Amino acid sequence: MRLSSLSYNIRQGFKNIWRNKMFSIASIATMAACIFLFGLFYAITVNFGGMLKNAEKGVAVTVYFDDNATQDQIDEIGTAISKRSEVRTYKFVSADEAWSEFQKSYFGNHKDAADSFADDNPLKDMANYEIYLKDVSKQASLVAYLEKLPGVREVHQSAATARTLTDFNALVQLISFSIVVILIAVAIFLISNTITVGISVRKEEIGIMKLIGAKDSFVRAPFVVEGVTIGLIGSVIPLVILYIMYGKIIKYVAERFDALSDMFAFSSVSSIFRVLVPISLLLGVGIGYIGSRLTLKRHLHV
Amino acid sequence: MIELSHVSKTYEAGVKAHALKDVSLRINNGEFVFIVGDSGAGKSTLIKLLLKELSPTEGSIVVAGKDLNKMRHRDIPDYRRKIGCVFQDYRLLKDRNVYENVAFAMRVTEASKKDIKRRVPQMLSRVGLASKYRSLPGHLSGGEQQRVAIARALVNHPKILLADEPTGNLDGHNTWEIMKLLNEINQDGTTVVVVTHDMEIVRAMNKRVITIYKGTIVSDEEGDAS
Question: Which of A78, B91, B93, B115 makes an SS bond possible with B111, Cβ 3.0 to 4.6 Å?
């Protein structure tokens, strides 16, 4: 298509939007609502995922050794752990370190209670490897592997926590995905309605265009411009609102719930919008394009 | 050249209705031909067939060397650009001025801006509407609107001009003005086919007249002025 024809069709597309003001506004509003909800769910999912990841970081697998395990066997267990891809970090905790940590956690300021044990270490058989995973869903397979290693007496795991976190994460993703799919379908339907009205208003003009030799692409172009523009405007508006809102919310939560700041570790505005902006724009333009093309195929036998 | 061989067109809406039955005719380059007949005789069906808006049920149609039955959908726009058409109801875009209506026909062919700026004023002068280029169709008389339609039909240099009842909505004075204009266009070498039921102008113009009755050609008479 020539540049002049392209600019003509773009102008016609904008005129279509203006002519069908009410339908265009309704479509933009619906699209904006869809993208807004999409953005909202995205931000919730990402933050929730981040928080779950945070929680997952605290889920550890602990490997205890046989009473008669040699240092070589313990080293070999360490090597075996280090080779596992699902392992994020691991550390060796000696019996003394385990006792010292226990004293700190349970006796706190009551040093005299700890001192009563003198040099007797009640945790002398509790030297262990403390393992943190990249993904808690892999915990069961790692535990099964570790239990078979020679020199391993027992493997402690928090199976219920791991399963709950994994299932909850999956549930949040599934719900978000389902809602987004429904919203996209609604947006396509509404854009399709707007284009249908545009076609019916311009039926005579389309008929004239065809009679004087307009190619299909020329007839379709203004409607595609209309759909894409509605999609684009409908995605920019919620992005701006979400940007302002998100910044304010994380600031408010950080100030108001200072004590919970470790638990509510929000993703930064830039990290959210770096992904959300291109996806939303693409989604808006894509929905506009697909909506208009589907409608043209159905109603415009050019 | 326009050539129809044994063309029939049947509409099926519950019962079969024969709009055209076994029509054969030949119109040579540069001719001025009237196609006449009563309402429902099949005149408009003939125009629609020539514009490739419809396909014949039987028979073949060849226009300017193109067999319309074998024409692919994507080639129809190019074909229609070679044929100008004018209708009784003008079919102008009401929200665009005279200039834009004529330019529109060039825009759909993706003509350059430069060509549009050069050609449109020429055509408006040709039909005597140069001074009204900014007027909206609603502010023009019927005759003037039909002139705009003619300018639009001619702006892409068609070899053939099809006019379906071009004077159907016009008064006597405007009717003659339009017929005079169509005659001048024909004098310049364009083949002109006019569908009408106005026998007064047909007689006065004294051109070739093809008469259709109930979908069949019943007479084909050369005029003295052909």
Answer: B115
| Assigned domain for B165 exists | no
| Whether A239 contacts A233, CB under 8 Å | no
Query: Are A102 and A96 contacting, i.e. CB atoms less than 8 angstroms apart?
Result: no
Task: Return the pLDDT at A261.
Answer: 62
Q: Domain for residue B29, yes or no?
A: no
Task: Answer with the one of A104, A128, A157 that is the final residue of a domain.
Answer: A157
Domain that holds residue A113: 60-157
Is the minimum CB–CB distance between B108 and chain A shorter than 8 Å? yes
Q: Can you tell me the mean pLDDT for A33-52?
A: 82
Smallest CA–CA separation between B15 and chain A, in Å? 25
Taking the CA of residue B139 as centre, how many other CA atoms within 13 Å lie in the half-sphere pointing to its CB?
10
pLDDT confidence bin for A52, thresholds 50/70/90: confident
Q: Return residues 213-272 of A near B (CB < 8 Å).
A: 213-216, 218
Indicate whether A201 and A259 sit together in one domain: yes
Indicate whether A162 pLDDT > 70: no
A20-42 pLDDT tens trace: 788 788 888 888 988 888 888 88
Residues of A in contact with B156 (CB under 8 A): 212-213
Is B97 part of any domain?
yes
Q: How many domains does chain B have?
A: 1
Within this chain, do residues A145 and A289 fall inside the same structural domain, yes or no? no
A91 and A104 fall within a common domain: yes
Residue range of the domain that includes B152? 90-157
Opening angle at CA A51, ends A50 and A57, nearest 5: 90
d(CA A291, CA A293): 6
Question: Which single residue is written with the structure tokens 């050019």?
Answer: A302
ipTM for the complex? 0.84
- In B, which residues are within 8 Å of A214 by CB distance? 77, 108-109
**Single-letter code of the amino acid located at A15:** K
Q: Which residues of chain B have pLDDT under 50?
A: none
Instruction: Note whether B91 contacts A211, CB cutoff 8 Å.
Output: yes
